[in-house]
Automatic annotation (TrEMBL):
It holds the Pfam family adh_short_C2. This is 3-oxoacyl-[acyl-carrier-protein] reductase. It catalyses: a (3R)-hydroxyacyl-[ACP] + NADP(+) = a 3-oxoacyl-[ACP] + NADPH + H(+). Homotetramer. Catalyzes the NADPH-dependent reduction of beta-ketoacyl-ACP substrates to beta-hydroxyacyl-ACP products, the first reductive step in the elongation cycle of fatty acid biosynthesis. Transmembrane segments: none annotated. Residues 3-176 form the Ketoreductase domain. CDD domains: BKR_SDR_c. The keyword Lipid metabolism applies. Pathway: Lipid metabolism; fatty acid biosynthesis. NADP(+) binds at G9, G10, N11, R12, N75, Y140, A141, A142, S143, K144. It comes from Streptomyces fumanus. Keywords: Fatty acid biosynthesis, Fatty acid metabolism, Lipid biosynthesis, Lipid metabolism, NADP, Oxidoreductase. Belongs to the short-chain dehydrogenases/reductases (SDR) family.
């Protein structure tokens, strides 16, 4: 397989592991990054997904080099944790603008080529906290829960066009995003995870790659947890 794959936020963390998994399987992988030096081995396009013009420019560059995007992994995301009474409107809307509206921007643009090709795979990276909730993360949890309704609506809207939309909901994964947690917070989280540990980014990447593979051709609108059992029953 040598498909044109785009992973947003593929320059580090879970996104980088996903990008590597596709590249190792022989796909042509583009990643987005916002600043600094992107990792080698991919088509790195500078793109902030909160800016529609940058998204458009990124897609043009990818299409010119790799052809229309056939597999999109909307992975880029941010947290801005705060208790509700201290959460400013900007804390709330900026997280929603990246995690939800940013995902809308990249998915909508990818769909143009997928409709033409009459096939496509879209995987959205949500989070266990989207369904479980998390004190101090009302903005983040709301944005991640919204991705489920977004994906399932599109699964219904575009299933007849042979485009699948699935959601992966990781639990706690060892990346920069979780490095900010204190030892006490980490121990508390691990205590609630049946598998008793954090995930490695590669464990999330394996599920994403499966959802984009031929083996997953009849899966759409699914929410797949990769959370060590943390979210069981939700
Ligand atoms: N780590 C976890 O425990 C965990 C658990 C559940 C879900 N997730 C989700 O998994 C995804 C990846 O998380 P991670 O742990 O790998 O986080 P990370 O290490 O903090 O990386 C976040 C990635 O998102 C990119 N990004 C953020 N805002 C962006 C924007 N406006 N435009 C373009 N790119 C942007 C970052 O790019 P820059 O390098 O340019 O900043 C970076 O590549 C996120 O959606 C996160 O919510 C993570």
């Amino acid at each position: 397989m040598s498909r044109s794959v785009l992973v947003t936020g593929g320059n580090r963390g879970i996104g980088l592991a996903i990008a590597r998994a596709f590249a190792d399987a022989g796909d042509k992988v583009a990643i987005t990054y916002r600043s600094g030096e992107p990792p080698a081995g991919f088509l790195a396009v500078k793109c902030d997904i909160t800016d529609a013009e940058q998204v458009e420019r990124a897609y043009k560059e990818i299409e010119d080099t790799h052809g229309p995007v056939e597999v999109l992994v909307a992975n880029a995301g941010v947290t801005k944790d705060q208790l509700l009474m201290r959460m400013s409107e900007e804390d709330f809307t900026s997280v929603l603008d990246t995690n939800l509206t940013g995902t809308f921007r990249v998915v909508k643009r990818a769909n143009r080529g997928m409709l033409r090709a009459k096939k496509g795979r879209v995987v959205l990276i949500s989070s266990v906290v989207g369904l479980l909730g998390s004190a101090g993360q009302a903005n983040y949890a709301a944005s991640k829960a919204a991705l489920v309704g977004f994906a399932r609506s599109l699964a219904r809207e575009l299933g007849s066009r042979n485009i699948t939309f699935n959601v992966v909901a990781p639990g706690f994964v060892d990346t920069d995003m979780t490095k900010v947690l204190t030892d006490e917070q980490r121990a508390n989280i691990v205590g609630q995870v049946p598998l008793g540990r954090y995930a490695q980014p590669e464990e999330v990447a394996a599920t994403v790659r499966f959802l984009a593979s031929d083996d997953a051709s009849y899966i759409t609108g699914a929410v797949i947890p990769v959370d060590g059992g943390l979210g069981m029953g939700h």
